[in-house]
Structures are given as C-alpha cells and as structure tokens.
C-alpha cells in the first residue's frame, strides 16, 4: 500500500564529503540545514547578518560583499539599541558606529570564507518585500518600525530572476562553488494563505528559470518534500507553520543520502554518537566519575579527528 508521494532528490555529479566547505544563506530553513551540518562536524557558515527572507535582501548583502557602502540612512534606534533595516535584528550595536562595525566585520569575514567555499545553499522564503517609503529602499527587516513607513509589495517573477541572477553572479566570483537553491516550506501566514501560495509560486518559477540558465546551480526540493511527501500537520510545530524537528530530520536524511559520499555517511553516524556522549551527564556526580567521562569524550574526539582531520567538533 502506498502511503506517501516520495520526492526524488537528485544527487550531485560529485558527492560531498568532510573536505567540503558550506555556506548557507536565506530564510530560517537555511539555518535548519546549517545547524545539521554543524552538528555532524562539517565546516559551515550561516546567515552572517541573520535570517534574510527574500531575494532582494540577499541581493543587498551580496552588494555589500562587492564593496557597496552600507546605507546609514537605514539604521534605526529601538530601545537604546541600533539596528539596520537591511539586516536581521541579531546584528546590532549600542551606537550607529558599533552597528556599522559589526556589519562590516560580518561582510569581511564572509568574503574571506567564500574564497574557500565549494558548496552554497540558498533558501528563499517569500516574494513579498517591504518598501521603506522615506528612503525608497527595499528592506530585509522592518525592525518593529511604524507600519506607515512601509509599503508591502509582491515582486514579479522577472524582478526575482534578476535578483537571483545577481546573487549567483556575486557568490560565484569568490570561488567556483556549486550552488543549490531551495524554497522554504515555512508558510508566511501574515500575508494570508492564498497570498503565501502566490508568493511561493513566484519564487518557484523564478528559481527554475535561474537554474535552467546557470550550469553551477541546481535545486534541492525541501519545499516539495515537506508540502507533498510529508503533507501532514504532525510534521509541524504548534503554530502549524514551521516544520518541526521530525520534519527537519526527515529532510536532512533525504538530503544526506543524496548528497554525501558513503564514507561521509558512516563517519556522520560516529559523530552523532560523539555528540550524544558529549551531551550525556553521569548520574553519579563525584569528581572521579566526571573526570572518567570527560576522558572518554576526549578519547572519542581524538579518534574521530585522526580518522578525518577536517572535522569541526568544537562548535
């Protein structure tokens, strides 16, 4: 009896291993993937200026990578903390100068990191953007400013394609990395469910147009796996919008099988055991027991590093 509609995940021509270096940018689902990569010891960086939901926001970050000046007119103060409308609120400063320094630091670190990155994952969340009326700029985050300062717009497919092409062009300049694009399965209910579907449709149409015209770009069907293969509320958090841990684990499993070499998959199993051992706390809390447990963890770690020097186990 067939109880689901499986989504085929295309494997890359050259599967990935622990020598691969990953960069993840985009919506919160990009962080889900990056967190899994980090957990299993891969070298990865994620969202240097926080979550960016739409292509225009990611394109703006790419302009910073190409040395465009950061727009100080889009700095705002909120509860004695400065934030940028072009970044997530996780990047902030006590003064405008502090905020500018933190943004510039993130840009410089990303430039350097991308020079040795061979695999990039981009996740687009929405085709809706907010237009900041005073500056006539599209923003990444409204930072709880008054709604009268913004106008919400649905970006048409042509403009989305142009933004995505520019993102790919910029990211490809640092190193000829393979780029994988996905559309986030997270529903943006504030836009309305009908509007959310229209937004996702525009993103999907734009993404596949871009893939057809770039040889180093391919698609990872995270959206289809959650929406069509899982297709059940038990795979969502209580908000019924965000995929839960079970769904994320399922997507990760399909991704891993399709993308990683067999040797990497076997080592990932060992790293998983190491992570669980590291998280375990002995029932007996005497010093001798604790020291023995720490010694066991360290010995396991050294064995793993001897087997694969590229492992990142300190995160």
From TrEMBL:
Mind telling me which Pfam families this protein's record contains? GSCFA (PF08885)
What are the GSCFA domain coordinates in residue numbering? 22-255
Q: Name one GO molecular function term.
A: hydrolase activity, acting on ester bonds
Q: What is this protein called?
A: GSCFA domain-containing protein
Source species: Psychroflexus salis
């Amino acid at each position: 009896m067939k109880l689901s509609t499986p989504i085929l995940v295309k494997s890359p021509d050259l599967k990935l291993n622990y020598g691969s270096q990953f960069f993840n940018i985009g919506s919160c689902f990009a962080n889900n993937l990056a967190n899994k990569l980090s957990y299993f010891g891969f070298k990865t960086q994620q969202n240097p200026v926080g979550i960016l939901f739409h292509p225009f926001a990611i394109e703006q970050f790419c302009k910073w990578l190409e040395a465009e000046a950061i727009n100080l007119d889009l700095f705002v103060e909120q509860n004695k903390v400065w934030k940028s409308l072009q970044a997530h609120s996780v990047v902030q400063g006590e003064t405008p100068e502090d905020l500018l320094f933190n943004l510039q630091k993130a840009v410089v670190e990303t430039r350097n990191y991308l020079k040795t990155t061979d695999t990039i994952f981009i996740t687009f969340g929405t085709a809706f953007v907010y237009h900041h009326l005073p500056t006539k700029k599209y923003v990444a985050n409204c930072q709880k400013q008054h709604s009268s300062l913004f106008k919400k717009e649905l970006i048409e497919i042509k403009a989305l394609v142009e933004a995505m092409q520019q993102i790919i062009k910029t990211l490809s300049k640092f190193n000829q990395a393979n780029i994988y694009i996905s559309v986030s399965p997270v529903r943006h209910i504030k836009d309305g469910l009908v509007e959310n579907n229209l937004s996702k449709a525009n993103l999907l149409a734009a993404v596949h147009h871009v893939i057809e015209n770039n040889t180093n770009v391919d698609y990872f069907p995270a959206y289809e796996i959650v929406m069509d293969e899982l297709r059940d509320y038990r795979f969502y958090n209580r908000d019924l919008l965000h995929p839960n841990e079970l769904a994320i684990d399922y997507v990760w499993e399909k991704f891993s099988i399709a993308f990683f070499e067999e040797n990497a998959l076997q080592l990932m199993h060992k790293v998983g055991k190491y992570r669980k051992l590291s998280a375990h706390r002995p029932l007996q809390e005497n010093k001798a027991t604790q020291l023995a447990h720490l010694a066991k963890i360290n010995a396991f770690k050294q064995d793993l590093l001897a087997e694969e020097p590229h492992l990142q186990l300190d995160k």
